[in-house]
Each structure stands twice: as C-alpha cells, then as structure tokens.
Amino acid sequence: MKKVYTCFCTDVIHEGHRNILQEAKKYGEVTVGILSDAAMIKFNRFPTITMEERKKMIADTGLADTVMIQNEIMYDNVIGTIKPDYVIHGDNWQNGPERAIRQNVIDNLEKYGGELIEVAYTYNENVKKIDDNIKEKLAMPEFRRKRLRQLLKLCPIVKTIEVHSGLTGLIAEKTVVEHNGELNQFDAMWLSSLCDSTAKGKPDIELVDMSSRMRTIDDVMEVTTKPIILDGDTGGLEEHFVYNVRTLERMGVSAVIIEDKTGLKKNSLFGTEVEQTQDSIENFCHKIRAGKRAQRTEEFMIIARIESLILEKGQEDAMKRATAYVEAGADAIMIHSRKKSPDEIFAFCDAFRKVDAKTPIVVVPTSFNSVTEDEFVSHGVNIVIYANQLTRSAFPAMQSTAVEILKNHRALEVDARLMPFKDIITLIDDI
C-alpha cells in the first residue's frame, strides 16, 4: 500500500482538515504529523492545547492510520524517514513565507520520485468563525499572561520587538520572514516608556503616567495575541508598584521590568553624563518582594534591571545585586550596558551562569547591536529586546516625507516610499 503523509498545525479540526484527511485516504495508508509546540510557535500559531491532546484529536477522526510528532517546520527529516509516496497539503501555502516550506517538500520528494498533492483550501463562514475564536482565545488575559513563561521553555531565545501603538503591535504580530530555509518572527512585544512617551510627544521622564500607558497596552492587546513585557521604569513608589502589578496581571501582561534607580528618570544610555542615582540593594529587594506578594498568579513575572554597568560600578556590584534580587523573588535579571562592545555583558552573563543556571537573563542590545541572537544564547541569554528600533526608523521616514512634500508642493515624489493602501488595510483587517 502506498504511503501518504500530511501535517497539521491546528488546535481544532474543522471541515477543511477533514477534506484533506479524506483526500489522503484515497491514496493509501495515512500518517499525520502534528507540529510540536516549538515548531508551532515558529509557524505563527501558539498552541492552546497540549501535543497529546492534538494527537488524540487527530486519532479520534478515524482518518489517520498513524499519528506522530513533527519536530521541525521543514520536512527534511520526516520525508527522509518515512519516504511517503504522496504528501497531501492544502493549497494555501503557495504565497507568503510558507512558500519556503512548500518548496522544501517538493525538493525532498524529488529525490526519490514522491509527489505533492494539493487540496483546495476550504474557507467559509464556519471556518472563519473557528479561526476567529482561536485568535480571541489567544488574546484573552489568562492565555496571554502565561505565554512568556511558555516561550522561555520552548525557545532558545525569546525575540522581542518594541511596540507603542496598535499599528506597531500588528507589525510585531504579523511579520514573518523566510530566511535560509527557516521561518522567523518575533515572539513577544516590549512596551517601552521611551517609545510610548515619544509617540505622545513627551519627554522620557515618567511624565506619561501609568494610566496613560495602560491605555497603550489596551490598544496593543485589542489587535494582537503575543505576550507583552512592560517597561516599568523604576516601578515608582512601592505602594504604587503593588497596585500596578495587580492591574497589569489582570490585563494579561506577562512581565514588568523595573530598574534599580531612584529619583527623576533619566535614560540609561546617558550613563554618567547626567546625574543618576542607584537604589540600595535593600530598598530594591523590598520593592521586588512587595510586588511578588501582590501577585495573584504564578504566571506574571517581575524582572529586575541592573544599572551597575551603566553607572560604571563594575561587574562585582552587578553580580552582588543580581544574586540579591533573585533571592528577593525576581523572576529574571536584565543586565544593561551603553558600550558598543558586548564584552562586559558577556562577562556578566558568564559569571552569573556559573552561580545560577536557571534564572532567565534579559539583554537590550541598543548599543552593542552587532551581536547575533546565537551569540547571546551561547552566553546564557534567554530574552533579547529590540527596544526602540521601530520608533527610531519611523520618525526619520515621516520627517523625510514631510520635507519632500513641502519642497515639491505635492505628494507625487514620496509615493514610491509609501505603503500601498491595500497593504495597510489588509494588515489591519486580517487580525
């Protein structure tokens, strides 16, 4: 009997999936692959049920002879192992980044004469309703809040991009790139106080209060599903921080990062050029403990940001603080530097990993931006935050457009650099 293979990345079975399975049965013995959790998140689908539940869901259809786990998005290993005569798939992967997966299947089948059979994609009101329900479920606070901890277990490094509005949230949510035979996307979103303040035309001195920032969070949450890490600056007064922790947790935010500085906020990248005061270890630990006591779930994370390297107090001070903050209950450590060389960051990470193998490390490579994610992983880093690049790229583009319109007294000259109306409407309507 001929061997048939198909793979699903889904938490539900609707008529479109059944159509594919029924078509597959016509050709022979059917093996169905279930994408692993780690593979699913690269495929822009975050699982809402376990792999075992997904396996049972397929088995219960009665249309699969064998159900297995496919651990990679690309099909090299599974085709090389099974050598199916036919691979069955919906025809909805012929455009966009998924084309790379399709080509990978074709290339592997050609090695021994296998055949790809594509089934017309089923899309109707019922299927759309099911898809919309899944998106809504993923956006709910109880599902979104725990997602950062889940990602830390599944990803070698959690790739996080700055957002400051619903539109930038959509960019973070929907940007998927095929490169070197892999699909890549951002895993989480960073709501920076700098970028939020800048978008509102305000200085980054904690002038934009938390109530205003929560409205930005709500704007982003309304149109996205990915986990959110909030820049909490110093955390403010302990009494305020406790209240804000509970509010953020209830909203579905996954984590807040607070820095061990005091007084009027001044951007860390100014370093010692401006007067900046670091909090005592005792006081900052007290704030961490108070925040952890205020939590109502185990999912929310308080991340302690250490400013010792920024303020040129050295690695010894940074290590002393990291150890104390973890003992106080911090769920992760962020280490910051304004140097272009990553040497002091790497030195800290290596030293910290010798004494603590588990606590996640967060870095923000604004200054040391030549370092790759793989290099960070090799030094024990778990989360990388691209903290301001969307804001810093948007403003020069907008300013240049404004200048060109003023110079030419019309908009024709800027048309080539503008996003087509169709693309921006699709970006918004698709979510």
What is the fold's blueprint, element by element?
Blueprint: E1 3-8, H1 15-25, E2 29-35, H2 37-42, H3 51-59, E3 66-70, H4 76-82, E4 86-90, H5 99-110, E5 115-119, H6 125-139, H7 141-144, H8 147-154, E6 158-163, H9 166-174, E7 176-179, E8 182-185, E9 188-191, H10 193-199, H11 210-223, E10 228-231, H12 238-251, E11 255-259, E12 261-262, E13 277-278, H13 281-294, E14 301-306, H14 314-328, E15 332-335, H15 343-355, E16 361-363, H16 373-378, E17 383-386, H17 389-408, H18 421-429
Parallel strand pairs: 1-2, 1-4, 2-3, 4-5, 6-9, 6-17, 9-10, 10-11, 11-14, 14-15, 15-16, 16-17
Antiparallel strand pairs: 7-8, 12-13
Tell me what the structure shows.
α9 packs across α11 (210-223) and α14 (314-328) packs across α15 (343-355). Strands 6-9-10-11-14-15-16-17 form an 8-stranded parallel β-barrel, surrounded by 9 helices. A 5-stranded parallel beta sheet has the order 3-2-1-4-5, with helices on both faces. It folds into 3 domains: 3-129, HUPs (Rossmann fold, 3-Layer(aba) Sandwich); 140-387, Phosphoenolpyruvate-binding domains (TIM Barrel, Alpha-Beta Barrel); 393-429, no CATH class. The mean pLDDT is 90. The protein is built from 18 helices and 17 strands. It is of the alpha/beta class.
Which CATH-level-2 architecture of the largest domain? Alpha-Beta Barrel
- Report the mean per-residue pLDDT as an integer: 90
In angstroms, what is the radius of gyration? 24 Å
Number of helices: 18
CATH topology of the largest domain: TIM Barrel
**Coarse morphology:** globular
Write the CATH homologous superfamily of the largest domain: Phosphoenolpyruvate-binding domains
Overall SS class: alpha/beta
CA(first)-CA(last) distance: 43 Å
